[in-house]
Structure formats: C-alpha cells, structure tokens
Amino acid sequence: MPEIFRPCVEEPAFCERDGTPRATVCFWRERSDVAWRSGAVEIPSQDREDADGSEWLFDVPVDGRPEAYQRFAKHYYEVAVDLKAVRHVHALRPLSQDVVSSPNPDVSPGELAEDTAQIDYVDHRSAC
Q1: Where are the domains of the chain?
Q2: Which of the chain's ends, N or C, has fewer CB atoms near its CB within 10 Å?
Q3: What is the full DSSP assignment across 22-50?
Q4: Roughly what angle, to the nearest 10 degrees, separates helices 66-76 and 54-63?
C-alpha cells in the first residue's frame, strides 16, 4: 500500500482494538494511476466455488445496476427498498424527503448532509 494511504489503514475506526485492520480486501487508486491497484493476493486452495469470496463481496458493485442493490438490500437488511428510490440515488440526483424516507421514514435529507458530503455525493446534472 502506498504511504499516502497509510493513515487510512491505521484509522482506529477501521481497526480492531489491537490495531489490526478490519479490511477484507483493499484496492486503491492514486490520482495519477490509470487503473485500480492491490497488493499480493493469496487465493485459498479450497476446492469450492467462490473460495476467495470475491463473487459474494463484489457481485453488487460489478453488476452496477440499481436492481442488484435492491436485491442485496432486501436480502441483507431484510427491508424492501423502492426501486424508484434506488434508481434516483444511483443516478446521483438530489436527495428529496420521498427518496430518503423510502428505506427509513425517520431520516431527513438534512440529517444525511454530513454523510453525503463525506462521500462526495453530488447531483451530476448540475455539474459542468
């Protein structure tokens, strides 16, 4: 891992109490990189399908469709998520009360402002 990302690895929120990182996998990309990078990968020698867990870990991001996230949310969180709301967020449209209330009626867009700023959630329709 490049030194520039060392603070991320050592961030207490992402480590066990003994300092061991909680990461299952780690990919990085510096601004000057043309592709994502990773360290050495050891694939288990188990004789089973998806031995390294990559299919389970990455099936939703690799699929890339809102429908894949909707299925994941229903299975993992055991909640029905409105596909229209998922498509809205997937398209990076502004968060409205209707969209935010879809999975959680107790949350407002204002309450998510810090979180959305932290992940650079922006309305790409207004980007130039």
Answers
A1: 1-31, 53-128
A2: C
A3: --S--EE--TT-SS-EE--------SSTT
A4: 140
42-53 pLDDT, tens per residue?
A: 776 766 777 777
Structure tokens given for 41: 């990968």
Tokens of 78: 């055991």
Rg (CA), the chain: 18
Each residue of 85-120: pLDDT tens digit?
999 998 889 889 999 888 888 988 889 888 888 888
pTM of the model: 0.62
Q: Judging by DSSP bridges, how do beta strands 37-38 and 27-28 pair with one another?
A: antiparallel
Alpha carbon distance 22, 15 (integer Å):
5
Tell me the C-alpha distance between 108 and 96, whole Å: 8
Measured N-to-C along each axis, helices 83-90 and 66-76 cross at an angle, to the nearest 10 degrees, of 120
